[in-house]
Amino acid sequence: MTTTTTAPALVPRSTPLQSVRWTALGTECFIQSAGDNAPASRAFASAAQAWVAAFEAKYSRFRPDSLISRINGAAGRDWVEVDEEMERILDLSGSIYSLTKGLLDITALPLMRLWDYKAAVPRIPSAAEIQAARQLVGWPLVQRERGRVRLPKAGMALDLGGWGKEYAVDMVAGLAKEHGLSQVLVDFGHDLRAVGAAPGKPGWHIGLEDPVRPGDACWGSLAINNRGVASSGDYRRGFTIGGVRYGHIVDPRTGRPVAHGARQVTVIAPTCVQAGVLSTTAFILPPAEGIRFIQESMGAEGCILTADARHQTRGFFNYVVHN
User: Fold this and answer.
1) Please, which of 45, 122, 279, 320 could form a disulfide with 232 given CB 3.0 to 4.6 Å?
2) What is the per-residue pLDDT across 78-111, written as a single tens digit (0 to 9) for each?
3) Helix (H), strand (E), coil (C) string for 60-118
C-alpha cells in the first residue's frame, strides 16, 4: 500500500522554537514546539514532564511500588485491583497480542530476564531454563475480571517495555493539542510523534541512525508530519559469547534472541504505538515476512536493514529526504 500525505501550510521559518529535554522512561525525552505562544509552550512542557513522571511511577517494573510491580509481586497468589486506565492498557495489550500473533506479549518478561545483557557476566541460559520460562509466558494465561487482574503462576510478570514508551509519546502529543499547539515534535529515545511541521518546512526532519555506526552517523532522513516513527534493532543492546552476538529482542516462540540478519527496522504510521508495534514485530519476523506484515497494516510504511540489503515498502520512499 502506498501512502501519500498532503503537505501542510508552511509556518514561517522565523517562528520561535521552544524545546525541553529531560531523562525519564530509561531514555532521553525531548520535545520541541513551534509558535508565538510561549506561555502555552511552557505549560505544555510542564504538563508533559508531569504526565511522564506519573506514568513511569505507575507502570515501570523497576519501581517497587508501581502498579505493575504489585501485579508481578502477587503472581501465583492474589488478584490486584486496577483502575480504568490500567483496564485500557490491558485491553490494548490483548489487541497487540492478537495483531502480532503473540510475537509482542507483555508477559514475556521471564524470557527477557534470562537473556540479561546488563548482567556483570552475561550467559547463555540452558534449554531447560528457556523451556521453564516459556511456561510462564502467554497473554491468554492472564486472568481478568472487571476492576482486577491476576497472574496465575508464580514467576509470571508483566512489562510494558515493548511499547510503553511509544504509548507515552502519543499521549504527550495529545497534550500538545490540548494546549493549542499545532507544530510539535515528541521524541522519547528516538520513538517519535510529529504534530504539524517544523517552522519553514513541510515536515519535521528525522535522522535514521546507521546501525553500523550508532551515535556517529545516519544512513538517511525522513520528513514527517502528523505521523509516528519508531525503530527497532538490537545493535545497541546485547552481548557476545564465543564470537556469537545475542541481542535483547527475544522471539517468544523460541525463547531465544532474534538472529536472522535484521539490523534495524523503521516504521512510519499514524501513531507511535502502531509504529513501535509494527517495527518490533517486523524485526522478529524474517525480513521478507516483516515487510509484508508492515504493508498489510493500514497507513504504515517501513524499511528493514540487513547486513547486505535494504527492504522497504513502496510508500516509504515518499518520506525520505532527498538531498
Assistant:
1) 279
2) 999 999 999 999 999 999 999 999 999 999 999 9
3) CCCCCCCHHHHHHHCCCCCCEECCHHHHHHHHHHHHHHHHCCCCCCCCCHHHHHHCCCC
Amino acid found at 214:
P
Residue-level pLDDT at 17: 87
* Integer angstrom CA distances of residue 70 from 75, 114, 145, 155, 157: 9, 21, 17, 13, 10
In angstroms, rounded to a whole number, what is the distance separating the alpha carbons of residues 203 and 7? Answer: 8
Q: What does the block give as the cell for 319? A: 518520506
pLDDT of residue 12: 52
> Do residues 316 and 301 touch, judged by C-beta distance below 8 A?
yes
pLDDT < 70 regions, the chain = 1-15, 323
DSSP at 183 = S
Cβ proximity of 172 and 51 under 8 Å: yes
The reported pLDDT for the residue numbered 13 is 57
